[in-house]
Every structure is written in structure tokens, then in C-alpha cells.
Amino acid sequence: MPSLETNLGKLLKLKNPLILASGINDSNAASLIRGAKDGAGAVTSKSCNVKGRKGHDPPVLISNEHYILNAMGLPNPGAEKMRDELALAVKECAKLGVPVIASVFGESAEEFAEAAQIVAEAKPALIEADISCPNTMNKTFFSDKPESVSAVTRAMKNATKIPISVKLAPNVPSLSLLAKAAEDAGADCITAINTMPGMAIDPIARRPILTNKVGGMSGPALKPISLRCVYEISRAVKIPIIGTGGIITGSDAAEMLVAGASAVGVGSAFYYRRNSFKLIAEELEKVMKENGCSKISDLRFQE
């Protein structure tokens, strides 16, 4: 049978390329540990900032068979409390051979750095800079200009020795330019992509359904966008990419790996399928076997 073991560049060794994406069943140590036990190759925590955040008032989420639209607003208890949850998760997930990734955000490069310093005390394998959340009124959106991408990346690199992954947005003028800015500033990895800004309207009430009006779209409808983004980034940088967005099946995961990702973020699949990691891994293994691929690196784009 094909082997699902792979490496995220020189950063992490993974038993499979499936990574629990930030924001999905990951608000505390127990949920991260559950993700590891359910078959994830790595797990990512919910994004946190230094002081914590209440998030938006409901309704904050709607879904159908095509997409999920959420405007949670990055609720979190703050970096210090998240650090304690991460420390427990790191300890327990290590027993399962599953690395833990911590996600942070801020309203300035300095706050990103401070949050990174705090969560670094839990010794996660990687820290993800969420510079691209689409539903926080642009207060944490730093991924539209090379200068702001560079500033956050440099600040975090100066704050900790733990490798940094920069999470980019799909709705920007030149994704390859922004990814290169992150790489040049010292980023060790790119996470691509965050959700796509979207809106749902109630035609009877004649108003947006979400309290925040705008939310981040994920789910199957996002996959063509995320594939294009990962493909574009993979041709602009040499650092590894965690490809995220619309991964529901093993075939989806294979497509993302072919596009240029080293690992695959899985999030919305939890809303559509039970036992997502197990099923996606089995399906990916089947796709590889049917196409004569013995290892993950065999899934590469054919020019």
C-alpha cells in the first residue's frame, strides 16, 4: 500500500499530510488531542491574540451543501490561557506522534510578536500568523500589502525561534508577490488560504443574515480558488505550503498536493462528514494506489 508519511519541508515529519485547520474543533487541549486521536497528521489551535476577544454576536454561521459562511470574529480567551491549553495538547499529542501548531493574530506587528512569544512557551512545533481573517472589519487584515506581510513576519521571527507559517488571503492582487515577501522576511512556511469574504442575504427581511454582515466562505465552493492560490504560490517560493480550503474528500486532498502543497489543511469537512480524517486518508491512499503513487511526493504537478 502507498505510504501517507510525509514531511513539511524540513520543519515537521507527519504520519499523513492531513492537518486540522485553525478554527475547527480546536479551542482547547481536549479538542486538539481528539483531532490527533481521530487521525490528523498535525493539529492547529484556534487563533488567539494577547488580550483575548469576545467575537461577534449571533447569528455567526450559515451552511448548505456548497459552502459554509462564518463570522465568528476570532473569539478566544487570550494568549496566556491558550498557552496553557497548548502545553497540555503538545504533551499529549507528542505521545501520538502528532505535532501541534499554534495560531496567533494581532492588530499590529508588535502584537503578533507578543502573542507568538507567549504561545511559544508551550513549545508548539510551528506558529501560524493569521494575518488574513476576513470578518474582523479589517483590524487584523495584514495580507494585502508586501510591506505589512514582511513587518508581521519579521516581528514574529525576532520574537521566537519556533518556525513561522504565514496564512495568506485569496482576495489580494498578487498572491505570489505577497508569499515571496513572507519568504524573504524569514517565513518558514506558507498556509494558503484563509476563507473568502462573502455574504448571505435574507430576501424577506431584506438584510444580511450574519450579524457582522460579511463572513468567511469555506467548504466545497472554495476549492477551485484554493487550488489556484496554492499552485501560484508554489511557483513563487521554495518554502513548504499547507494547502487549505475546500478539502472534503481524499480526491480533494490529492488535488491540493498535486497543486504544490506539502500538507493539506482540513476544516469544513467536519461539517459534511463524520470521521473526516479517517475517510480522507483512506480515499487519498486509494487515489495514490490507483495511480501508481507509492509516496506523497509522487503526487506532483505534471507540466
Could you explain the architecture of this structure?
With 303 residues, the chain is an alpha/beta fold. It has one domain: Aldolase class I (TIM Barrel, Alpha-Beta Barrel). Helix content is 34%, strand content 18%. It has nine helices and 16 strands. The chain has helices at residues 29-37, 79-95, 109-120, 146-159, 175-184, 223-234, 250-259, 269-272, 276-290, and strands at residues 6-8, 12-14, 18-20, 42-44, 61-63, 68-70, 100-104, 126-130, 164-168, 189-192, 196-198, 201-202, 207-208, 215-218, 241-244, 263-266. The strands form four sheets. Strands 3-4-7-8-9-10-15-16 form an eight-stranded parallel beta barrel, surrounded by eight helices. It has a four-stranded antiparallel beta sheet with strand order 5-6-14-11, with no helix packed on it. A hairpin with a 3-residue loop joins strand 1 and strand 2 (12-14). Helix 2 (79-95) crosses helix 3 and helix 6 runs parallel beside helix 7.
